[in-house]
Design a protein that fits this description.
By secondary structure, this protein is an alpha/beta fold. The chain is built from twelve helices and 21 strands. The strands form three sheets. Strands 4, 14, 15, 16, 17, 18, 19, 20 and 21 form a nine-stranded mixed β-sheet that branches. Strands 5-6-7-8-9-11-12-13 form an eight-stranded parallel barrel. The protein has a three-stranded antiparallel β-sheet with strand order 1-2-3. The longest helix has 18 residues, at 211-228. Bound molecules: ligand LLP.
Length: 424
Amino acid sequence: MKTVNTNIKNNELYIGKHSLKALALKYKTPLMVYDEEGVKTKIKLIKESFSSKKLKTKIIYASKAFIAPHLVDILNEEGLCADATSISDFELLEKANFPMERVFFQGNNKTEEEIKLALKLKINAFIVDSFSELKLIEKLAKTKVDTYFRINPYVKIDAHKHIQTANLDSKFGEGIDNAIWDDIIDFYNNSTHVVLKGLQVHLGSQIKEIDPYLEAIDKIAEFKKKLETKLKYKIKAFDLGGGFGVKYLKEDSKFPLKEGLKTIIKKLEELDFEIVAIEPGRSIVGTEAVTIYQCLKLKQSRYYNYCLVDGGMADNIRPALYDAKYSFACVNNVVSQEKEKYQVVGKFCESGDILGKDITLSKLKENDYIVTYTTGAYCYAMSSNYNGALRPAVLFVSSKGVKEVIRRETVEDYLAVFNFKGDK
Ligand code: LLP
């Protein structure tokens, strides 16, 4: 499964005109490389497919998939909204000059400090996760605040259980059948600040089918009517969440972005909302990056050929956490008659630090470079300093050139948080 724009020249791998080997030599490895034109193409596809003459549409980028100021500029230019889940997210968006009226506050346990900052910044809306959170926002607010309420519509999806969020036992939102809704509506009717502008759902991630979304829409349409029998005003907006799945392996299926979003918008047009939103993350950035590693050592065990790379679970926790599978390729000697099957493993002290099992590659030599495809979402974002690992550098490449959007962490960055004897 290749990233959109990879190509082979002189048996070496390129993204557009950029040799991945040259980038690896210059910026060192592990190195993440995003195809900027690929990201923009995805945004355009989503914008075109999720558009309506009847409804106002919003595309709220799920920043948790991957965020960096350069990407914020792109989101801004393309007119997207963005979400934030923490003070750091807000500060990053603000520092990158993203308009606060296009920011939505997500998260299932917002702190007082975070709420106060969001109120001060005058963001677009809070996506409220619980009645308890709603009361806290009302208490802290001094003027009118738009809220979308997250509802668990109980729609099961076919994905790893760690990324399902609308199960009966989910920690997210308030259940659609929860008796608490009468009190929530009373609260909205009698509150001074919070306004129930919209309803929100997020079913989970890596959803390949359209049906779960259609099921959620049906349930929410009914639920809206029920709420409006008691609420003193109409609920204007509906945010369907994100989760549109991408392909990691050739044999994977994916959410049909164009056709799926068109079907969804058509169905939403039949309902009585003015504003509709989606929250894509992975479907914008997921397929548009690769991670380059250097294979530092080769060794054989009784069962396997091991390719030991200079990164691993600290820059990509997904195989260990979700049993996620990836495609790989060699950066040099891409096509070869001599092939070998490898366990591509990381350098961290855990048996689960395996990036890929039974991966067929051109026969490797030590110090060769390899890439993992489709690392654009939830890799850098979930990276860690495990074993003292330093987070990789991240590049955006395009026909215009190379932009280092995140520099590699340094040992100084790593040491900066510790108190040493003698420090003040
Ligand atoms: N909206 C909400 C409220 C979310 O919680 C998420 C993702 C999204 C939108 C975006 O979902 P996407 O379109 O990217 O699937 N770490 C996991 C994925 C966790 C998703 C968390 N929430 C993984 O690596 O698969």
